Amino acid sequence: MDRPQAERLYDSGKEVTVKKLLELDAENKALKEQLAQLEKNSQDSSKPPSSDTPDQKPAKDRYPQQNNKSTRKAGGQKGHQGKNRPLVGEDEVNEFKHHYASHCKGCNKQLPQDENANTTGDFFRWQIFDIEPIKPYVTEHQAHTTICECGCETKAIIPGEVLGSNFGENLMGLISYLTAVLRVSRRGIKEFCLTFLNLSICLGSIQNILEYSSDALEAPVEDVKSKLPEQKVINGDETGWYGSWLWIFVTSTFYYFHVAKSHGSKVLKETIGDVFEGILCVDRWGAYTKYHKGLIQFCWAHLKRDFLGVINVGRKVKVTEAIIFGKTLALLRKKIMSLWYDFKDGKISRSELINKSEPVINLMKKCFFKHQHSQQRCVRTLSRKLLKHFDYLFVFIYYEGIEPTNNISEQGIRSAVQWRKLCFGNRSDAGAVLTSRLLTATRTCWLYKRSSLEYLGNVIKAYRYGTQIPSLLP
C-alpha cells in the first residue's frame, strides 16, 4: 500500500479502515508464522541436523571458544586416572632389544654391553607396536598334464570356484568392509590397495568384488528379513537416498536395511508382511499408521522438538497462546520422562508407573482438546494430530520392552547417512541391494560386538567353495 491508497482508506471512514487494518494484521501474523516454520531447525522440529544452515546451528557449536568459560587447561586434569597400553607377554614379542649401561656412575669404569653384564633386579620394559610392510600373499594354481602308462595324456582342471576371481576372500572381505563401515570410495580403495597393500587393482575389479560380496550375503540377509514378521517390537525409520529411500528396521537381535524407490506403506508390506502383529516404534510419518493397525509407539524425542518448535513460533509471532501451549506440554513431557526414568532405575514398579502417569496423561489430553480449534495454526495442527493418535503416545507406559524414543533406529541409520554424503546414493537396483545387504550385515555384527571384517571374509569364502554360509544371527 502506497501513501495515496492509505489516504483514501483513511477518508473512507472508521468501519472500513478498522476492517482493513484487521485484515492486514491477520495477514501479517500468518506470514510471520509461515516464516517461523521455514526457519525451524533440527533443534525444534523433525528436520535432520544436516539440513541446518550455519546460522541455525547453536552458538556453542559455531563459536566453541567464545562459549567455553572454563579456566582449566586442555587435556587430562589433576587426579585423572590415566590409561596406558598394557604390555603383552614375552611370547607375543617378535624382537627383543637389550640396553645396558655403558659406564659405571660411581667410578666411570666401562661396563660390558652384552649378556655378560652383571645385572641385578628387575629390568624396565618398554614395547613399541608397529606394522611390517604388507605384500600380497599370492597363490598360483598350476594345472599339469599327466601321462598314463597306457600313453594317454590327461590334463588337470582347476576348480571353477578358483577361476572365478583373481582375488581371495580375505581381500574381498576387506574391500567390502572399507566400503560399508569406513565409507571409502572406489577410488579411495584403489589408492589404499596400491599404497598400503602394495596391490594394484582397477576400479572395475573393485566393483566386481562388491557385487560378488552382495551375492554371498544374499542368503544370510534374506534369513534376517524373513524373521521381521515374527518380532514383538520393531523400531523403524527412513531417510532420503538420492532418488530413493533407505529404510531401517531394528529389533532386539538384528538390524535390517532396505533401499526402495517408495516412501510409502507398500515398502512396509514388502519387508514386514501384509499384517504385523507386534508393536512398531516410529516417528509420526503417515506410512506407518496407514500400514499398521495394531500398537504403535510414537517417538517422544520428536515430540520434544515439536513442543519447542511451537514455543519458538509463538515467540516470533508474539502469540501468548502458542507459548503457553508449548510450555505446558514441555512440562508434562518432563513429568512423564521423570517417571519413566524412575521406573528404569528400579525406583518404582510398572503398576506405580501407570498410576502416577495417568493424571499427567489426562492433563495432556485436556490440553489438546482445549486447543484443537485454536486460531494459531501450529497449535491447532499439533493438537489435532496428537489427539487423533493419542493412544500411540503412551504404549511404553503399559507394555514391556518398549522405549519412549526411537533413538535406536536413528542411531543405527546415522552411519548410513554419513555414507550417503560420500556415495550420493545408488545408480542401479543392484547397487541398492548391495547397500542394503552390506549395512544389514555390518550393523548386525556391530550389535553382537562381532568382527564384521572377519564375518564378511567367512561369508565370501563359504559362498565361493559351496560350504555352509554362516548366519548373521547367533
Oligomer: single chain
Overall pLDDT metric? 88
Number of strands: 7
Order of helices and strands: HHHHEEHHHHEEEHEHEHHHHHHHH
How would you characterize the largest beta sheet? 5 strands, mixed
Structural class by sheet pairing and helices: alpha/beta
| Low-pLDDT regions | 59-66
Strand order of the largest sheet: 5-4-3-6-7
Q: Give the amount of beta strand, in percent.
A: 5-15%
Q: Please report the number of helical segments.
A: 18
The share of residues in helices is: 40-55%
Mass-distribution shape: extended
Q: How large, in whole angstroms, is the Cα Rg?
A: 33 Å
Distance from N terminus to C terminus (CA atoms, Å) equals: 72 Å
Outline the structure in words:
The protein has a domain of 178 residues. Strand 3 and strand 4 form a beta hairpin. Helix 6 packs across helix 18, helix 8 crosses helix 17 and helix 13 packs across helix 14. The N and C termini lie far apart (72 Å). About 2% of the residues have low confidence. It is 50% helix and 7% strand. It contains 18 helices and seven strands. With 474 residues, the protein is α/β, with parallel strands linked by helices. Strands 5-4-3-6-7 form a five-stranded mixed β-sheet. Strands 1-2 form a two-stranded antiparallel sheet.
Quick structural overview:
This protein is α/β, with parallel strands linked by helices and 474 residues long.
Keywords:
single chain, alpha/beta
